[in-house]
Design brief:
Elements (H helix, E strand, L loop, with lengths): L1 H17 L25 E4 H4 L7 H5 L6 E2 L15 E2 L11 E5 L2 E2 L18 E8 L13 E7 L8 E8 L3 E8 L2 E2 L2 E12 L19 E15 L2 E15 L6 E16 L3 E18 L7 E7 L2 E11 L6 E21 L8 E24 L2 E23 L18 E17 L2 E12 L3 H5 L2 E3 L2 E4 L7 E15 L2 E22 L2 E23 L2 E15 L16 E9 L6 E9 L2 E2 L7 E2 L2 E13 L2 E8 L7 E5 L2 E4 L4 E9 L1
Parallel strand pairs: 4-7, 24-27
Antiparallel strand pairs: 1-6, 2-3, 4-5, 6-7, 8-9, 8-37, 9-11, 10-11, 11-12, 12-13, 13-14, 14-15, 15-16, 15-17, 16-18, 17-18, 18-19, 19-20, 20-21, 21-22, 22-25, 23-24, 25-26, 26-27, 27-28, 28-29, 29-30, 30-33, 31-32, 33-34, 34-37, 35-36
């Protein structure tokens, strides 16, 4: 694996040199233009200025500008367990895996084993924009987009200064350092960047529940990235990227340490000639480990999930043949292969010697091969769009082995002879939409779509414990299948003022949920469906040096599970209301200020709605003052009024989110 990564990285260094013979360039670092029918599905775009002006400096918090975006918990990548950082939209949550397809330069970034998003490796300064499309997806890698798609685009040549750097110091002895060097090389460019941050962390445990083993949520993470872009001709461009990252966290108890790490690389060919081409290949090597400390005295180790190595390999090719001006046809194929192994050791925490009791090893392989076609047909002010894809998926080589050293063996998800047998099938999905430009200031849109998501290897084969609840794996899980419709409008009544509204109905069949078996046991199960319906509003306004952006989502989400106790209840971890608004003042060349208000409604920890997480209203703020010589003094504050944000409530055992946090630092760009 490392050999493949080094090869792709070496290609990245070599590409600019290969471009020196070419004196002309059309676009550096961008991709093919969006088809004209794309707005029919609605989307929200977060631009670079917003990405680099958040109080936390973390991509997952910026994404909450889009109402309806959520992770499994309300924690960010400093105080959450990495394996719980799945991304979803439209209140279709309920477990920690991502129901939203997250792409970086076209590459799926979810962990191949767990399905979580390594947010600590997605540095805002490295990006040009984020486009969030809620609702089922199709096209390349559409197999995972049941709740929508989040597309992250790397910074282009126009976005990157030659040299940029930042240094911040924050509450609780927190530090953040970053730097990037982006020179032109021949007709192309190279960008090398790095980021490191650490902190002693805050108390996630309320004071009344702290014990002798309780500690703050300490964290340390770093990532480095290199991206090279070079034209190979007047209509051909090649892009290469490699990223290496590592993250370490301590959660709740001393010794409850986790790590996640990865080595990712990709290479992409963009052709802008008569036959437009978008070809991509990538490789990912990931690992995760986590130590669980018993919550009962004397707080010894109960489980060491010592490593979970996984690999993702894949690629796609998309062709746009030259047709008449009325049609944009996209034809292509994509492939993703995920493999992973889990190695963990269980311990007897009641004995002073803390001996190991059993050794566990589980793993499997997933393969998805897709074929897709999509056409956008422009008929004057009306654009019709439609697409279809067929996926052949396979889950194979599944196993779960236990070596019992003492005591009783844990529940074996592969105990039945056929429980972990290989299986495969075809899945056909598609979408259709219409966009009518009524006049210069108003557009109407409507869409319908289907989609599917395979259960992750984690859901299939790995059990876990978050005291006092043990959640069992289920190798028999079926793929989730989505059907949805939506309609909306986009208004621009005046220059600098926009407003959009979308009403939607989504039904996620065979939804995977953590179903309660008894007071201390849950099991991953397919339920009949989760039905989510609601409305999404977005607005923005710009008046001279002031800008305002706002987003609101109301989602009525219900579990359909006849015969189950949670039938007709709201899914776990899904609020009914969410909203975000940012007001910024940024005169050209002068000081700037911004304030962000976020609201998340009441939600429940569990499927039976016994443990509530109260609503939360938080305020963040940033300020910047130019110092001259291309430097600025920057101040940031998270959770200005120190609101208690509940992130977990398991039978009264509480975890809290980020408290009031101040940052002061310097930014340089030249």
């Amino acid at each position: 694996m490392k050999k493949h990564l080094l090869t792709l990285a070496a290609l990245g260094f070599a590409l600019p040199a290969a471009a020196q013979e070419n004196d002309t360039i059309v676009v550096l670092g961008s991709v093919l233009p969006l088809p004209p029918g794309t707005p029919a599905y609605g989307s929200v775009t977060i631009d670079r200025s917003r990405l680099t002006d958040s109080a936390s400096g973390r991509i997952e918090n910026v994404l909450t500008d889009v109402a309806g975006f959520q992770q499994f918990r309300r924690s960010d990548s400093r105080s959450a367990n990495p394996s719980a950082q799945g991304a979803t939209l439209r209140a279709l949550g309920g477990n920690a895996s991502s129901r939203t397809l997250v792409l970086l330069d076209g590459v799926p970034v979810a962990d191949p084993f767990f399905g979580y998003i390594p947010f600590n490796a997605l540095v805002p300064e490295r990006l040009s924009l984020i486009r969030v499309t809620r609702g089922g997806g199709v096209g390349a890698f559409g197999a995972g987009a049941v709740a929508g798609t989040i597309e992250l685009g790397s910074a282009t040549r126009a976005d990157l200064p030659l040299l940029s750097a930042g240094a911040f110091y924050g509450s609780r002895d927190s530090s953040e350092l970053s730097a990037a060097f982006s020179p032109d090389l021949g007709a192309g460019f190279l960008s090398v960047s790095g980021r490191w941050d650490r902190g002693d962390g805050f108390w996630t445990t309320p004071k009344s529940q702290r014990v002798s083993a309780s500690v703050p949520a300490r964290y340390e993470s770093w990532s480095t990235s290199i991206r090279a872009v070079a034209p190979l001709g007047s209509d051909l461009e090649i892009q290469a990227r490699a990223t290496v990252f590592r993250d370490n966290r301590t959660l709740r108890f001393a010794g409850a340490d986790s790590f996640s790490e990865g080595e990712d690389a990709s290479i992409r060919l963009i052709g802008r000639g008569a036959w437009k081409i978008d070809a991509l290949a990538y490789v990912q090597a990931r690992d995760f480990g986590n130590v669980v400390i018993s919550s009962n005295p004397p707080f010894r180790k109960s489980l060491d999930q010592r490593k979970t190595p996984s690999t993702g390999v894949g690629g796609k090719i998309e062709l746009r043949p030259p047709l008449n001006d009325a049609h944009v046809l996209r034809l292509g194929s994509d492939l993703r292969i995920s493999t992973g192994d889990m190695f963990e050791d269980a311990y007897n925490a009641t004995l002073a010697t803390n001996p190991r009791t059993n050794l566990r090893h589980a793993g499997a392989r997933q393969t998805t091969l897709g074929l897709f076609a999509e056409d956008d047909w422009t008929l004057g002010s009306l654009v019709l769009t439609g697409g279809v894809r067929a996926d052949h998926w396979k889950i194979s080589d599944g196993f779960y082995h236990v070596t019992v050293l003492s005591g009783v063996a844990p529940v074996n998800p592969c105990a039945a002879a056929t429980a972990c047998a290989s299986r495969s099938d075809w899945q056909v999905s598609g979408r259709a939409g219409a966009l009518l430009q009524v006049n210069d200031g108003m557009a109407l849109r409507a869409a319908a779509y289907t989609g599917f998501r395979l259960p992750t290897l984690n859901e299939l084969y790995r059990s876990f414990v978050v005291f006092p609840i043990a959640t069992q794996a289920n190798p028999g899980l079926k793929p989730e299948k989505l059907k949805g419709v939506e309609a909306g409008f986009d208004l621009q009544p005046a220059v600098g003022l926009t407003f959009s509204a979308t009403v939607f109905y989504n039904r996620l069949g065979n939804a995977i949920a953590n179903a309660t078996i008894n007071a201390t046991t849950r099991k991953r199960q397919n339920v009949d469906s989760i039905v989510a319906k609601g409305i999404e509003l977005n607005a923005s306004a710009k008046l001279q040096d002031f800008t305002l952006s706002a987003s609101y989502a109301y989602t009525d989400s219900t579990v359909k599970a006849p015969g189950q106790l949670f039938d007709h209840l709201r899914p776990a971890q899904t609020p009914r209301h969410s909203a975000s608004g940012t007001l910024a003042w940024a005169p050209n060349g002068g000081p700037s200020l911004s304030t962000t208000l976020r609201y998340v409604g009441r939600q429940y920890e569990d499927d039976l709605q016994t443990d509530a997480l109260p609503h939360a209203l938080t305020v963040d703020a940033t300020a910047s003052v130019p110092l001259g010589h291309h430097a600025s003094l920057v101040g940031r504050v998270e959770n200005l009024f120190d609101k208690a944000v509940y992130t977990r409530n398991a039978g009264g055992s509480i975890d809290l989110g980020t408290p009031q946090t101040f940052w002061i630092g310097i930014r340089f760009a030249h």
